[in-house]
Structures are given as structure tokens and as C-alpha cells.
Design brief:
Blueprint: H1 7-10, E1 20-21, H2 32-47, H3 53-59, H4 61-74, E2 81-84, H5 87-97, E3 105-109, H6 118-121, E4 129-133, H7 142-146, E5 153-159, H8 171-181, E6 184-188, H9 200-203, E7 207-211, E8 223-227, H10 229-234, H11 262-265, H12 283-299, H13 301-319, E9 326-327, E10 340-343, H14 347-359, E11 362-363, E12 365-369, E13 372-377, H15 385-395
Parallel strand pairs: 1-11, 3-4, 3-5, 5-6, 6-7
Antiparallel strand pairs: 2-8, 7-8, 9-10, 10-13, 12-13
Helix pairs in contact: 2-12, 4-12, 13-15
Length: 405
């Protein structure tokens, strides 16, 4: 299905009634179907609560559906998917499971968003070395990682797309590099999942985690992780919760067993899927995220990626006509994303323009890291040419502010 018209879908994002919203890399606008899912979930509890074990199981049905939608999005198996509340939590689950030890090293780029790296930096106190790859004009080429990787490298921590430059890494090449020394590629998918295709089987990535409030346009506090099945079988979580453990079907529900025993009924025997890394989940948030995932899969991630690439073409053409503004993000389609950075070459000018645009009803951000950054514009597939035109007109001073009398 080629995406040529999104006007009906845009009606489910009320923000477009009054703003040209082009800040999806920060937070996606609220999606009406997600709101309805939250209302449905809460209505159920107001009317009947958890009156029986069977009702609890019914509550979990949309969670199972969401797991299937995630697997479809990533071309993964459902047994490789677990739900986590945030990208940082997902990375902590992975870092804790793989048994980092003194003498190991973790390689990461200097443009990485903190949550992609902090789970590993915590192990510095135990003798794990953190090795930094320095960007080249906003890019992190694989050959720069190769200079830091050696036989002691356990993890290459990387974002699919860099939040402050829009650079999209060659994941398959990075996996090949990691495999050559027996390391793992741990991916922060926040700035691409829902916008660009990530096929975990094609790329061979070992681990992916994300949260849903950006390009997946779901609610804050809901996300997921993927762990390759061979690693699920190899590693166990270092944090134990009752939801991680195998439950004997013959003794369900546990709370109806008069001889309930922690030693027997909660014995440390993990389930054999990625769900053993799951925490007590934000069920209401997953109900909502299920709706946004369904929408993305219905349109098709490859179609969405194609439309975003088209909108980025339109955006870059427009930005290049704005006096004094320079587009800094990569131009080549294979390493660009839905994030476009443009700058006046001065921090205060960029920040001032961000505020001016907001006053004129156009939403963008400013982002900087490692001495690189500027205005960040991030259109999703439900944006249109009119949104971009409003941005360009505002940048050129052709938009008049609204006055209320």
C-alpha cells in the first residue's frame, strides 16, 4: 500500500487542528486510538475490576496482541519480545544479563543519547572500560567503530539514528564487525522504530530496545525489547520478579492453592522466552501502544519509510531556500533518517528561532551534542507538504503572528 493521502489519519491527531507539528523525534502527538484504548482499559476496571482470575487473563489479551504486532514490525519471533517501560530499562536488562566483567570493554559513539549508554557506564566501577568513537561531522561510520573494537569488546552500544544529527548507521555492517570479535550489538531504536524498517533477521542484531512515545506514537512509559533467541536461551535476568518465573499450569491460580509455597510455586525457574526479562508491565500503556503498532503495521513500515524519505526531500529543498540556514544532516538516503538538523551557525540564533516558530504555530526542537546540532525538524508519515510549507514560510518571516482581540 503506497501512502499518498493521510488526511483521514490526521483527523486522529487533534494537534494538527492548530499546529504544524514537526517534532516527532521528541514526542509524537497524541493519537485518538491510543486515548480510546486507555479509556477502554479504565472503563473495564471501573465496571468490574479484577473480579476473577479469568478477567485478569482477558486483560492480558491486548498485551499478547501487542507482542505479535512488535514481532511483525521487527520480523522477529514472538518469543524474542518482552515489554519494558523505557529504553534505559531495556538496556539495563541486557547489560545485567550478559555478565560484564573487569577487562571487558563497551564501544559507543559520542553522539549517543544517554539512555543508550548509561546502563553500561555503570559497570565502569567494576572494571569495564568504556571506549568512545568520535563523530566525523555528525556521522559515525562503521570504520570508526572498528578502530576501537578488539577481542575484549563485549558490546557495541548504538542508536539506529542519532538524535542530534539524524545519521542512520549501517547496522548490518556493525553486526559483522561485532561478530568478528564475539561481541554484541545493542541497539537503541527510539529514533527509527515506527519510521524506518529494522529487520532483525536481515541485520542480525543481537538486542533492540525502545519506548513508544516518539515515532511509534504511543504513550510514555510503554516500550519493548527484542533479544535474539540464542541469547534468550543463553542468559538469564539478574533481576527476579514473579512475572519472570515459570508458573505450573496445574496450580493456577496460585492464590487459590491453600498450600501456596514460595519455595515451590515461586521457585527460581525462568520461563524460556524473552518475557523472562519483562518487568511488571504498564498494561494500560501496552493496550494503547497496541493501537499505534497496529496502525503502523497496517500502513506497512516500508511504505512509511518511503513516505518519510519523500517528506525529507521536500523539507531539505525548502530549508535550502532559507537565507542563513545550513542543513547539516546527511543527504544520502542510505544514512539519513526522519531527523533533519539545520543551523544558523549560532546557538542563540537557533534557540531564538525555535521559540519564534512555536509562537507562529510550528513545533520543532533544538538539539546539540559533541559540538554539533541546531534546529531539529522531524516529520512523520502523517505529516504533509502543507506542514512543511508552513515551517518554511515561518523561517522566512512570511508568517504573521496571531493576535486575539
Amino acid at each position: 500500500m503506497k501512502i499518498t493521502c493521510v488526511e483521514e489519519l490526521r483527523k486522529e491527531f487533534p494537534i494538527f487542528r492548530h499546529r504544524a507539528y514537526l517534532d516527532n523525534a521528541c514526542y509524537a502527538p497524541g493519537f485518538a486510538r491510543c486515548k480510546k484504548a486507555v479509556e477502554d482499559y479504565y472503563d473495564m476496571h471501573m465496571l468490574i475490576g479484577c473480579t476473577s482470575f479469568h478477567q485478569t487473563l482477558a486483560e492480558l489479551k491486548p498485551v499478547a496482541n501487542a507482542r505479535a504486532e512488535v514481532a511483525k514490525l521487527l520480523n522477529a519471533d514472538e518469543d524474542e519480545i518482552a515489554f519494558v517501560p523505557s529504553t534505559g530499562m531495556g538496556n539495563n536488562k541486557f547489560a545485567g544479563a550478559i555478565g560484564l566483567k573487569p577487562g571487558d570493554n563497551v564501544v559507543y559513539g559520542d553522539l549517543e543519547f544517554p539512555s543508550a549508554v548509561l546502563a553500561y557506564t555503570a559497570f565502569q566501577r567494576q572494571g569495564v572500560e568504556m571506549r568512545v568513537v568520535h563523530h566525523k561531522n555528525g556521522r559515525l561510520p562503521v570504520e570508526e567503530y572498528a578502530k576501537q573494537v578488539d577481542k575484549n569488546t563485549r558490546v557495541i552500544a548504538v542508536s539506529t539514528v542519532q538524535w542530534s544529527t539524524g545519521f542512520r548507521v549501517d547496522l548490518k555492517a556493525l553486526v559483522d564487525l561485532a561478530n568478528s570479535v564475539g561481541a554484541y550489538v545493542a541497539v537503541d531504536g527510539c529514533q527509527s522504530l515506527g519510521a524506518f524498517n529494522l529487520d532483525v533477521k536481515e541485520t542480525g542484531v543481537h538486542f533492540v530496545t525502545t519506548q513508544s512515545h516518539k515515532w511509534l506514537f504511543g504513550p510514555m512509559g510503554s516500550g519493548f525489547m527484542f533479544m535474539r533467541k540464542d541469547l534468550v536461551d543463553k542468559f538469564d535476568p539478574n533481576i527476579v520478579e514473579s512475572c519472570n518465573l515459570y508458573k505450573d499450569p496445574a496450580r493456577q491460580p496460585y492464590h487459590h492453592q491453600p498450600d501456596l509455597s514460595i519455595d515451590r510455586d515461586y521457585a527460581i525457574k525462568f520461563i524460556d522466552t524473552a518475557a523472562k526479562f519483562q518487568s511488571a508491565s504498564n498494561i494500560m500503556g501496552i493496550w494503547a501502544m497496541n493501537e499505534s503498532l497496529r496502525c503502523i503495521n497496517e500502513y506497512g513500515i516500508k511504505n512509511i519509510e518511503e513516505r518519510i524519505q519523500y517528506l525529507v526531500d521536500v523539507l531539505r529543498d525548502g530549508l535550502n531556500t532559507v537565507p542563513g540556514l545550513t542543513v547539516l544532516s546527511p543527504e544520502e538516503r542510505e544514512c539519513r533518517s526522519g531527523i533533519v538538523i539545520a543551523s544558523y551557525g549560532d546557538l542563540h540564533a537557533d534557540l531564538g528561532m525555535m521559540d519564534t516558530l512555536s509562537d507562529l504555530g510550528v513545533a520543532v526542537s533544538c538539539r546539540y551534542q559533541a559540538n554539533f546540532g541546531g534546529l531539529r525538524v522531524s516529520p512523520h508519515f502523517y505529516n504533509n507538504e502543507e506542514d512543511i510549507d508552513k515551517l518554511i514560510c515561518a523561517l522566512k518571516g512570511e508568517t504573521k503572528p496571531l493576535y486575539f482581540h
